[in-house]
Structure prediction request, 704 residues.
Amino acid sequence: LQVAISTGGAAPVLARRLRQRLETELDESLSALTDVLARERARIRWRFPHPGRRRRFFERLLDGEWPQQLRRGDVNANATFESALQSSDPSRCLGEVTLVGAGSGDPGLLTLKALRALQDADVIVHDRLVGPAILELARRDAECIDVGKRVGEDHDATQARIHELLLAHARAGHRVVRLHGGDPLVFGRGGEELAFLRAHAVAHAVVPGITAALACAAATGVPLTQRGLSRSVTLLAARGGENSQPPHWHALAAPNQTLAVYMGTGELANVTRELLAAGRGADTPFALVENGSLPNQRVVTGALADLPRLARAHDVRAPALLLIGEVAVHAGRVARTERCSNGPPRVLSEAA
Amino acid sequence: LQVAISTGGAAPVLARRLRQRLETELDESLSALTDVLARERARIRWRFPHPGRRRRFFERLLDGEWPQQLRRGDVNANATFESALQSSDPSRCLGEVTLVGAGSGDPGLLTLKALRALQDADVIVHDRLVGPAILELARRDAECIDVGKRVGEDHDATQARIHELLLAHARAGHRVVRLHGGDPLVFGRGGEELAFLRAHAVAHAVVPGITAALACAAATGVPLTQRGLSRSVTLLAARGGENSQPPHWHALAAPNQTLAVYMGTGELANVTRELLAAGRGADTPFALVENGSLPNQRVVTGALADLPRLARAHDVRAPALLLIGEVAVHAGRVARTERCSNGPPRVLSEAA
Prediction:
């Protein structure tokens, strides 16, 4: 295997970065891997004469345990290779659906698996909230379908449309990614999609994502749990759907816990009133994080009793996450500095 | 910019993957970027005659907004470049500490930012639980320091030792990564580390990680919330530290919510007894996930009243995450199939 990178001397750092990335992700086992594939070339071609089938065989092999086994010098590497070569029946290719969490909007918070799933996808079925910076990471020839709610359509109709899309594309043999903002299994309808895929015997998998509570905690320096301040964190949707049970406000109002309220910008007065009525202290700190983890992040902090007033005063808009609890007193003190700083750390973004 | 990749014909798929990865992550703006750096070469050398300083300048520029501005054709790109060239005083370089979440153990669940932080780190201060597959992603010349608890050392002494390490390396001008299992701000002592770094005016940042609840939900197909079944999910540590408040069992026992219990393998009988005593139904489903998201994952499912017995019968050991709630009825039905499958989806790993 040979990789040559040149910037014509203009940016050796850039060339080194690219090289480093390739090296780090794929490392020295690559040569061993290439050697085996070169040696077995004739057998592979004989087994999979069709180029498309052969490509899928390579992908399966490279995505599986084989590269890691080679890297570790595992004695099973050979058996894994043989089994991949023998077992796969090239006569049929079925599609599959992977539910993928896109995280909070910052493309850097995608997981490596999510990136891989995006790059392998033939079709990407995504929420309106998933931004272009993330969709840009898909393969250029992938079909991207925005399945945001349409005017006059109710949520159940939207969801039924999504299910049919997933099924149709999987049955057409495509690799489908269902891309959710945040995590697919937290306040998305990923659970319903999984149930639907199971019921229709469609192959599926789930790649988790950095949900807003984690992203906003990291971006504002609020520990979701901390010894002496909070032993648990509850993620709650401010608005339930129709027929949903009301939240257990009394439980949520107990001290020394953290509450992360999703989709709450329209419900701030209600959430505050319920928590205060159930006994949460008026001076409990909160941090309201607008566009958490994005370059235009804003953080409003204060005491619970003042939450609705402060949110109005600062005109906080969706998407915003609300953190309530003793730990929120730490909000807004994450000091991002330039790499090489001038004198004392220069704070580029001081939240709040 | 020129990148040439060859496998000597042995594995064109591999070559295409590498090319695709480079293209997708860095895209066509790379050429524009290289052109600017080539044009400005003399000025950059004049400003930063020292190669190390020059390297840091390039890194700062490439890590900042400039590449994205160039890509978008943003008119501010030029100003950003000039400001980077002018503003940074090359006379001093301070260190910095980034708290990074390593996720649940599967290296594929690292975020892109976490990978970048690992690759940029001079020093990596990591928990014992963070596996070699993740540490392998660090730069080869990075110093890795295992700060697991030592025999006879109490937790506070361990933490104090970690703080001193972080401070010493940051003050020596190093880029330090403090690598936590899961997410740094969920049941780690990341909050205390942040407070310490702030108090000592050390530049810092936080990169979130896929915490066990998200990883195990994805790996077992249990939605943490679902319309009609659960409107909230609470992450709870089974064991508090000394002086910690007991959990609000009554609150946690209410129906139609999900409970994710961390570090609970030694506390299963206790958790079960408390929840049942507080009124949670004996038939509430649970899923106990051992080594969640790892190749050796096991899932034990059943009704809450049978939890301690079933866990003993299956000899479940740490690390394990316990999911309790109506949603857990879905556990263990994630069907991972081979990419190109033979007849009906062939389930390779059926949990439980």
Summary: Chain B touches chain A through 139 residues (CB under 8 Å). The longest strand of chain B covers residues 96-101.
